[in-house]
Amino acid sequence: MDMLLKIFPVNQRFSKSFMTSLFLTLLFACFVSFFYLTVTADRQESIVRLCLVTGIALLYFLMMKTGYIKRYRSIFFISFSVLFIISFVGHLYDARGHMYLSRANISQLETPFCHIVIPMTIVPAALSKTIIFPAKMSGSYASIGSMVGIWLLTIFTIGRGWCSWVCFYGGLDEGFSKIGKKKRWNIDRLKKMRLLPFAVLSFVVLASFLVQSAVYCEWLCPFKTTTEYAQIVDFKSFIATVIFIGLFVTLVIVLPILTRKRTQCGLFCPFGAFQSFFNKSTLYRVQIDKNKCKDCLKCVSGCPTFSLTKKSLEKGKTEITCTRCGSCIDNCPEGAIDYKIAGVPFTQKDDYFNEKDHSKKWKQYIAGKLNEIFDPRVFLISTAFLFGVIISSRFLTDAILRISNLIMNGTMLH
Amino acid sequence: MLQKIRIIIMFALAGMVFISVPVYFINFGSQSVGNFMTRVLKIRVDPVYSGGELMAIFNDPYDDDKGIGTYTYPDAKEYSPYRGHLDLVKYIVRKPVHEGAWSEFNKFWVMELVFNTLENPLNAPAGFSFPLINIYISLDGKNGGTTRSAFPGIQASFDSAHPWHYLVTVHGWQIDGSLYNSEGKYVSKVLVDIIKKDDKIRVTIPIENNTGLETLTDKSISYHYVTVGNFSLTGENHFKPIFLSATTHFGGGNPEPECGPRIYDYLQPSESQYDILSAYNPEKRKYAVLRPVKVIAGEGLHIPDNKNDTMDSAEKTYQVKKRKRKMDSLKSLIKMVEEVPEDVDIKTELACLYFEMGEDEKALTIFNQLTGESDSDQSLVLAYLGALHAKKAASKGNNVEKIIIVKESLAILDRAVSQAEPGSLSMIHVLMCRANVFRSIPDDVFGKLDTAVADLKTLKKISKINGLKEIYINVSDLLGDCYIRKGWHKKAVDSFHDGQIMAFAAGDEYHVLKLKNRILFAEKQYLDHLIMNL
Ligand code: SF4
Ligand code: SF4
Ligand code: SF4
Question: What secondary structure letter does DSSP report for B292?
Fold first, then answer.
């Protein structure tokens, strides 16, 4: 038991009973299974899918049972990014035989459209009804319609929770930020850095509007290094390549290792900044109970995206850039931070069903269970995790099949 | 109390938010958003990425890669199937772009050439082996220009009413093409891209200052002479000579090798290509005078709807005949089953016929009886059961149920295919069942269109080898349909064309006519698709 507790430490304040955790997990697994197991598949693929469902359910169970979030979320989030790259690049090789985007691919509008492009395309789309990006309007998972639809869904479900639970790039940044044992560079003191992504956002939106092309994607996006990039055919494309690879190495690898922060997501990504505005359009918040807070600032130093400051602690709220990652909740030794549903009183939580007021034992039991279930964290974690799981389902399965193909047949291609 | 209500409402909302996530993905929200954006909001991708808005489209007849009407390809096996490699079927001109994005040139002008088939058996670096393309462009209202060819070899001259100012040459043995002026001086490189799935060559001409091209606008009028010759490394300016009779390396059918134009296909204006190209005079050593097409915004963009009145009646006659044939077979099969009830083959045949005629209940009953019968072909039974199961999905109102049913039937069909004996006759039925189901379910949800295409291709092969003409014609039709859905209009046209040829050979007038309409439809779809993407 001690051994188990060591591997899976429990946060007594937030931990749920075994039965409740199991019940919630089974319910969650039903939803996940629908997306994983009702697909026709050969035997090998079925086994992979079954393992994935089990793994996902286990992570969910641990989040509920141990009361800790970030560790189990990270496992999913980072694996998703890595497997996404394997699957995506494999797919590119299958379809075109190379990773780069040729002129012909661009002219055939075969560039996958990712969420980061959205803020740059809105103004031109509104003014001239044109999308300034060479992708297909609909018909594939990486089409404009598909990505815009997913983004619209985030607006009223998880907001910037996208950046800790769903984004297929963010896990890389997070992964590298976990590599360094200690902070070699305490970047927290540079307080205003937090505003950088908003500057980048303003710049790329304006510049894209002026030149009528998504400049971030053409010149800056670090993640092109791991997915696809325009073929180097002239000096201009060479310079663009140097820039995005440089940014990848700096922002996604080196700085996260040195600072243990998600520097790409916290200091650069324009979509992150853009999505921050939609944190308020969702039901969820991360709230700090000022009465419990002892000002130790562990939450501030542990926040990977610079979303907590002393000032925000005083207000009892996070900055708008919060990605609902759960680190601060896990880090706070006083249990002063937790998720909250807007409009539901924060301090009264844990006892909406007045457990102690009931005279009969069974009524107390049911009220206790209902209190455990009707907990904002259950709702947020389930929504955000399910979102991530659905978006990842194709990629995870495909990547694992590719890896097993590599081991057995020496090739990653289908 | 009020607070309690508020808490309940907020939790209920949170529950709805949670549920909205899976529901959105089950109901294919993404596809609907895309359609809403294009159809209702009328949002489109900036045309500069695809080379600029469409300006003009010219169709050139299929199978006219015969020069003056008699030219043939060289006999070398690389040219097999000895048609199509030099057959230009479409010429597309886009509007000049003055503010490019994601491109090497800031200002450019794009032309696209679609070929009957674009192959690269000789591994040429640009991705195609045979065509030598020369586009001579005459700009309306511009002084100068010439009526002589920039380089000897082509053995043709140009209309004096439209002296040309620029020549674009492109072939597969050089990554970039070249732009020359009327004095034959090199002006700049021209970008060449291959879009294999459409058999298309895309040519991007830079618009540089002081060349005269910089004044081009959407409204400019120009005249284009588009010629396709056969590339030769050693030929005079790369034109491969064409002799009286073909040899391994040279084409034949040219009675005047010294004077006949070395042009296999010419983008014909209103006059016929054969008339234009054969109007040379060997005695006076006068070359044929080429006439250009007039490129003006809007040209060819509106193909009229091909509503063929006779089609309706032909269709009716065909369907009536087919139904009658089936009724006759049905009668005799029922009688045979009554006489020899233990014959599982006849029973299977009867069940298949019921299925074809839409009598699903009756078919299902017989197939259920046949399940597990050791004498009957179980792969066939499974395949039809799978197809019948899939049909049930249509009657369900709810998407979740529909998906579950379709997925079950997909599994059954996959099992049927894995059990069928390769090359056997039942394989044809099994593949047909699977392809029919796979092609009729939404591809963005189930992702089975590729498998349907593969199945239909296999069927096409099997039916060709076994001389099963009717199946070949049907399969070509279905395959073309799948290609259209994949956006491969060029391939679709080819498939319909194959079916049409077979129908012609089989004397099946109905399908000749039907497939002709399908070809026109595919071409129209292609246009719509181009316009939609702009
Ligand atoms: S900040 Fe950008 S890259 Fe990072 S997780 Fe969010 S969207 Fe993805
Ligand atoms: S404030 Fe907390 S939940 Fe938000 S990003 Fe920072 S650590 Fe994560
Ligand atoms: S970790 Fe908890 S106690 Fe410490 S400052 Fe943050 S909220 Fe306050």
Answer: P
Tell me how crowded residue B283 is: count the other CB atoms within 10 A of its CB: 7
199-258 of A, contacting B, C-beta below 8 A: 211-213, 218, 230, 233-234, 236
Q: For residues A380, A386, A388 and A389, what is the CA-based torsion angle, rounded to 10 degrees?
A: 150
**Mutation for B interface: A45, A128, A153, most B CBs within 10 A:** A153
CA distances from residue B385 to B365, B374, B421 in whole angstroms, order as listed: 10, 17, 18
Domain that holds residue B11: 1-44
B289-301 core/surface letters (b: 16 or more CB in 10 A; e: else): ebbbbbbbbebbe
DSSP character at residue A251: I
| CA-based nearest distance A230→chain B, Å | 8
Q: Is residue B54 helix, strand or coil? A: strand
- Per-residue pLDDT tens for B171-230? 999 999 999 999 989 999 999 999 988 889 999 999 988 777 888 888 889 999 999 999
Q: Is A201 in the pocket of ligand 1 (CB under 6 A)?
A: no
- Sketch out chain A's domains with CATH numbers: 1-93+365-414 (no CATH), 100-282 (no CATH), 283-349 (3.30.70.20)
Asked whether A272 lines ligand 1 (CB < 6 A), one says: yes
Angle CA(B485)–CA(B487)–CA(B489) in degrees, nearest 5? 100
**Nearest-5° angle of CA B107, CA B111, CA B112?**
140
Q: What are phi and psi of A226, to 5 degrees?
A: -100, -5
Q: Best of B10, B13, B32, B49 to disrupt the A interface by mutation (most A CBs within 10 Å)?
A: B49
Q: What is the DSSP letter of A364?
A: H
Answer yes or no: do B121 and B175 share one domain: yes
Asked if residue A124 has a cis previous peptide bond (ω within 30° of 0), the answer is no
Residue-wise pLDDT tens digits, B1-38: 777 888 889 999 999 999 999 988 887 555 678 888 88
